[in-house]
Amino acid sequence: MGTSPTLKKLLFCPPREWFGRLVLGGTFVCLVVVVGGRFFWEPRLRVGVPVPFDVRAPQDAEAIDRAKTAQQREEARNQAPPVFTVEPAAIARSQEALAGLLPGLERLRAKAGAFPYANPSLLSLASQQFLRGCPEEVWQALQGQAVGRPRQAWSASSPLAARAGAELAALYQQNPTAYRSLAAALPQVRLRYRRAIAALSQELEAPPREVFDLTEAEWQLDRQVVPLVLADIVQGGVVAGLPAASLGERVDAHRLVPLALPRRQVLRYMIQHAVSPSLRLDWGATERRRLQAAEGVAVTVSVRAGEVLVRSGQTLTQAQFDLLDALGLTQRQPNWPGIALAAGAVGLAMAGFARGARNLCQTGDVMAVGLTVTAVAIASVGIRLQIGLALVPLAVCGTVLGSFYGRRTAWLGTGLLTVLMAIALEWTWIGYVPLAAGAWLAAIACDRPSSRTQLAVIGLAVAVVQAGGFVLLTLLFGGLPMPELLALAWQYALGGVLSSSVALAVLPYLEHVAYAITPIRLAELANLDRPLLRRLATEAPGTFQHTLFVANLAEAAARELGADTALVRTGTLYHDIGKTLQPEYFIENQMGQPNPHDALADPWRSAQIIKEHVTGGLRLAQRHGLPELLQTFIPEHQGTIVISYFWHKAQQLDPAAQIEDFRYDGPAPQSRETGIVMLADACEAALRSLGAEVTMEEARETLWRIFQARWQDGQLNDAGLNVADLERIAQVFIRVWQERNHGRIKYPPLSQKLDPTGSALPNPLPRSPSSLSL
Fold it and tell me: Exposed, middle or buried by CB within 10 Å (0-12, 13-18, 19+), for 286?
């Protein structure tokens, strides 16, 4: 039995078409699975629908109560303590702050004078502290009491005063000389102490007075202790905003802190004013701890065999559905009508897209569109199930497709995907309409943007539309509490910004898949510092100048016809890169040097070398990863034209010469862009050779002869250009030529006697700077 013609065409088509059909088939299958996913194993019993029969437990079993489990898991997440890590730099900051604090305390102690100011064997430290700071009348009364002339109206007001008076009286009786020396020195000691107290009160964060009560030995010892205590406390962890009382307790509990209260108070002050927060919240570890806490929670429900779980006619609640679904009692089965609906919707959408998006004629473009639509569909379903509807990235589709193929294709793809996602997702119209509006806005606004800034602005606009639309619809028809409304609005805004961010992230990867090129990528490739263009400028400078003029001509013509100007300019810059292989064989690079073709004296070999700039250029482009669309400019700008000069020479040598040996391999231009470049390349030398005295009509006739030769040779048959287009191109070429060869201002003879500032020049002009008289 013979094979049908259709099957033969399918089986024996070229590998490229096989691959394209495989991509289409894979996209169809993926979209059907995504769109119809909920129909493949759909329960017959549904939430909110009355149950037609009693549902009984078939056996004793335990099932997880999803609602309570989710609630308790959320509580466990919130109750999990955060995880902090110690910041190593905090110790250095704290020690630096302590080093800046100590000199100030030293200055205050120096103002108060040395302590003790007397020998402790003559007068105790406690009495010395009291006498230095007590009121003047108390000091005078104690003096009188010590020498036996007490004041009748005074009596010791405190145990410290009584003790100091007793020690002074004993000193006077035992060593009058020492007593008189002490009595003579104390007024100066008391004065310095009062001045130190006054200076202390002027400090913004004054240290405790006990800093004056430490002996020099105690102070020096504490100065050595405080850095050790500070380092241990910081290393142990200090959170920002730790109360002073809590920090003081940690200081008091340290093993190196002395028991004496004055010394502890001074150490507390120094550490409280030097310590730096050392604990930083570890978000990753905290989230892992919360996840572990939530995973350990599971609330189960026990049922007995034969127990009625739902009565006939009872409306099924979500909790009951979860229980029945866990026990396998929801009667899940494929919903074949739903699957057929999904498959039909996907098929119609793909057919409609193929009919409307006529600029997708290459396998790479089909693959790029298929990957984009499928990825957005999968992400939308996954995010809807795991996070919520607000972050569904529908706008990514329009942003990506618009960057490659323009507004029409983006709008068509986004509209069809929006319909398919309406089938695939569970949604409310208040929640879904803002997403659809944001996606359509992205598709309409994204018309092959030329910069990443434009994509970022589109993302902000989508965020505003999605958030604003949700707030407006909710206020009009919803009824959410304001905190929940604002939280969801923030998610809608975040979804819009993330859509443009995702598009920016995936564009560089899709550019290696798609046949089309984004204007952003074209701008990058048009950078004259790219390796191939830098090589062209240095190794074939004449060709480089020719290329720049051709690019100006072609770009102006493309703009006039509404073609892709970015593609035309970038393609033109690379159309002659093959001339870098043997630049000396092309006249624009010979710079007055002998023509190597004359030495060859072989028109066949010369023609082969000239043709090699096309085949060699393709090899260079492929080696440097130039996009396939740009590579088409290399062969198509020459098409299948004949290298006439060497063809005529060959005929002179051999009348039987074959013209095909002198014809480029082609193909002829297959697009308006490459057709424009062919015409610009052919006209560049002719326009350059025209003099300033040539009239417009003569220039037009020159160009039209070149156009007519290309037209009659069939080079423009597949380029999509008509005679009216050629007329417009000729006018543009002439205008660019005129702009390039504009006249120069002829200055009047007076300029020979005036410098640019208007000052008169000497006559005659000096021949050298040395002849100027100063």
Answer: middle
In angstroms, the CA 322 to CA 425 distance is: 19
Give CA–CA dist 569/555, Å, rounded: 6
According to DSSP, the residues that pair with 614 across neighbouring strands are none
Read off the pLDDT band of 6 (50, 70, 90).
Answer: very low
Q: How would residue 316 be classed by pLDDT, with cut points 50, 70 and 90?
A: confident
Task: Pick the range with the lowest mean pLDDT from 250-254, 556-560, 760-764.
Answer: 760-764
Cα 494 from Cα 434, distance rounded (Å): 13
- 713-724 core/surface letters (b: 16 or more CB in 10 A; e: else): eebbebbebeee
Give the residue ranges of DSSP H helices in 175-215.
176-201
Specify the amino acid at residue 223.
R
Query: Using one digit for the tens of pLDDT, what is the confidence trace for 256-289?
Result: 888 888 888 889 999 888 888 888 888 888 888 9
DSSP class of 692: T
Give pTM, 2 decimals.
0.66
- pLDDT for position 568: 95
Query: Can you tell me the distance from the alpha carbon of 448 to that of 510, in angstroms, rounded to the nearest whole number?
Result: 15
Cα-Cα-Cα-Cα dihedral of 364, 365, 367, 368, to 10°? Answer: 110
Give the span between the Cα atoms of 31 and 343, in whole angstroms: 8
The torsion defined by the Cα of 104, 105, 109 and 115, in degrees rounded to 10, comes to -160
CB 134, CB 126: distance < 8 Å: no
Read off the pLDDT of residues 676-701 as tens digits, 9 standing for 90 and up: 999 999 998 788 777 667 778 888 88
Least confident of 353-362, 363-372, 567-576: 353-362
Q: Using an 8 Å Cβ cutoff, are 67 and 318 in contact?
A: yes
> Ramachandran region of residue 241, left (φ > 0), alpha (ψ -120 to 50) or beta?
left
Query: Rounded to an integer, what distance in angstroms lies between the CA atom of residue 420 and that of residue 448?
Result: 25
Query: What whole-number distance in Å separates Cα of residue 702 and Cα of residue 697?
Result: 9
Query: Which of the pair, 757 or 662, is modelled with greater confidence?
Result: 662
- Alpha-carbon dihedral sign for residues 168, 169, 170, 174: positive
Q: How far apart are CA 257 and CA 229, in angstroms?
A: 8
Amino acid code (one letter) for 435: L
Write the pLDDT tens digit of every residue in 546-557. 999 999 999 999
**Is the sign of the CA dihedral 636, 639, 645, 649 positive or negative?**
positive
Q: Which tokens is 56 given?
A: 């009984």
Rounded average pLDDT over 665-683? 93
Both structure tokens of 419: 């319909």
Whole-number Å distance between alpha carbons of 409 and 400: 10
Say how far apart CA 559 and CA 565 lie, in whole Å.
6
Q: Alpha-carbon distance 397 to 412, whole Å?
A: 10
pLDDT at 2 over 50: no
* Element housing 302 (H / E): strand 300-303
Q: What's the pLDDT tens digit per position in 92-119?
A: 999 999 998 899 888 888 888 888 888 8
Q: What is the 3-state secondary structure (H, E, C) of 480-500?
A: CCHHHHHHHHHHHHHHHHHHH
Given a contact cutoff of 8 angstroms between Cβ atoms, the answer to whether 469 and 434 are in contact is: yes
Which residues in 203-281 belong to E strands, given as ranges?
279-281
Q: How many CB atoms lie within 10 A of CB 728?
A: 14
Task: Report yes or no: 614 and 638 within 8 Å, Cβ to Cβ.
Answer: yes
How crowded is residue 606: how many other Cβ atoms within 10 Å of its Cβ? Answer: 22
Instruction: Give tens-digit pLDDT for 439-459.
Output: 999 999 999 998 999 999 999
Distance from first CA to last CA of the chain, Å, rounded? 110
What letter does residue 714 receive in the DSSP assignment? T
546 in Cβ contact with 613 (< 8 Å): no
3-state SS, residue 31? helix
∠ Cα 325 329 332 (to 5°): 75
Residue 214 in contact with residue 125, Cβ under 8 Å? no
Please state, in angstroms and rounded to a whole number, the distance separating the CA atoms of residues 689 and 745: 22
